[in-house]
Amino acid sequence: MRKTDRGGDKLKDSERRKLLTCMAWAGGGLLWTMKSGVLSAKTLDGVAGAADADFSFIQISDTHVGFHQAANPDVLATLQNAIGHVNGLGRAPSFVLHTGDVSHLSKPDQFDTAQQYFKGIKADNWFYTPGEHDVIGDGGAEFFKRFGGGVNGKGYYSFDYRGMHCLCLVNVLDFQNGSLVTLGDEQLEWVEKDLKHVSSSTPILVFAHIPLWTVYEPWGWGTADAPRLYTYLRRFGSVTVLNGHIHQIQQKIEGNMTFYTARGTAYPQPQPGAAPSPGPLTVPAGQLGSYLGIREVHHVDIKGPLAVTDTSLAI
Amino acid sequence: MKSLFGIVIAAVAVTSMTSMARADSAPAVVQVNIFNYKFDPETLTVPVGTTVTWTNKDEIPHTVASTDKSFKDSPGLDTGDSYSYKFTQAGTYSYYCTLHPFMKGKVVVTAAP
């Protein structure tokens, strides 16, 4: 685990405690394991499980190539840092999931630049789902052209990987005035059909950009018709849901389903309701890395839950 | 030339009169700021023929999209970008940001007197 600059002796004890609490929240490299619906965390030191996992993969999110404001003037540098962390993990991931907002403004050159950087990660496969920043003005045409259009060119698809069934869902194409985004009837009907032939003992991985549970409705951090999705997922023993969008780690357990949101590699956002708006959070110099990160997911047992490790980009 | 000079004088006189008179003759461009994930003002009332210009002052892109497709949507507006639309018919025009649909605004266009 890498350490963060704690500001030397300039901090008062109360401030230091506050900062350490904040760092604990930020994760800083923890292994989350779930057994019988209970999450427990361990530091990365002496972690068991990662080494004997069947396979592992990386979740990377919210790279926002093209962002150039005070919260992070150089998102390509922090993306490169993230890539360095992935390649430094000791073994190549089986695949990489990008949970959206590859670009900041859906511009072709932003996608192209991102693609060039992604080539720096040593992994055989990449899977993508778009964020709302990837579909501005063209319904995702430029994104899908580069990263795959899925079913009927609408971006959603499923695949199997060594006994695990994975659903890539899209919840950024149906924004309606004043309400939470939806997956939409067409996609949900496809999910129902797709899962019909999957046995209940199969571990399920679902990923989409915007949280598939309501983290904070006033900021649009949720998906209105996610409860209908749950009805198709309840019969499975283990369901892991990975999202991005909110640039911070949040997690929730609901029955057989465990939901996680990931940090981005570009800039942090405030905790739900902790600021007047969800705009980018400018943090003190030297602390940005501890608010950014990548996630490594280990599949320890073919029928068991997935173990999630979040690593910050702190230097 | 002499009469043109007279018109210029008259125009100066009109613009220096009351705000009521100014509203009738001034070039009708009205600003809406986008800041802190809000349109400001959220409700804007203008006479027919007014051009409304939205300017994004957030660090995050936003859009201006008509709720019922009654006027042309903006492209994605990066920080500092503006979008203008001239309203030529009276009516109430509701709009929102397609990236953050909890952001709502309204332009009320009143008929010419």
Which terms would index this structure?
heterodimer; A: 315 residues; alpha/beta; Purple Acid Phosphatase, chain A, domain 2; seven-stranded mixed β-sheet; six-stranded mixed β-sheet; 7 helices; 22% helix; 22% strand; globular; disordered N terminus; B: 113 residues; Immunoglobulin-like; four-stranded mixed β-sheet; 36% strand
Overview of the molecule:
The complex is a heterodimer of chains A (315) and B (113). Helices cover 22% and strands 22% of the residues of chain A. In chain A, a hairpin with a 2-residue loop joins strand 6 and strand 7 (164-168). In chain A, the strands form two sheets. Chain A has a seven-stranded mixed sheet with strand order 2-1-13-12-3-4-5. Chain A has a six-stranded mixed sheet with strand order 6-7-8-9-11-10, with no helix packed on it. Chain A is built from seven helices and 13 strands. Mean pLDDT of chain A is 81; it is low at 1-50. The longest helix of chain A has 14 residues, at 13-26. Chain B has 113 residues and is an alpha/beta fold. Chain B has a single domain, classed as Cupredoxins -  blue copper proteins (Immunoglobulin-like), CATH 2.60.40.420. In chain B, a hairpin with a 2-residue loop joins strand 1 and strand 2 (38-40). Chain B is globular. The chains are: A alpha/beta (315), B alpha/beta (113). At the A-B interface, loops of A face loops of B.
